[in-house]
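Methods — Computational structure assignment.
A single polypeptide chain was analysed. Its primary sequence is given first, followed by the predicted tertiary structure written as structure tokens.
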Amino acid sequence: MKAKPTGSHDNKVVMAKIPRENFVKLQRYCELKNETVNSVIKRLVIEELEDPTPHMIAGRNILSYNKYKDNFSWKILLDKEIIAHIEDNMPAESLLQLHEAFKKAIDERDTYIHKKNDESVPIPSKLVRGKI
């Protein structure tokens, strides 16, 4: 019966090429944290693998108007009861521009998925393939 390998045989090396400017930023980050590049990368990989962040999370957008400052605040209330502050000093003009950008993007999406009724929702096309 063979003995279980120990030491470096249990570990694997992971490598990635990144642009020089990102590597410089990583080096600065490591200096600020007083850590080596290897220890930072190892810690980040392990943290992500042990507690991966989902691509999407559930929550609600909350926009509030501050009449004294004549601006808006934007936060997200996650279903996990966590509040993420996005912006606390958003001018009305920015919000109007954002509204127009959202409207344009949603109109483009509605055209692409052939949405014509306000009550309609996206349906996976594979469910109706061959029936339309």
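Note: The helical segments are 20-33, 37-50, 92-112.
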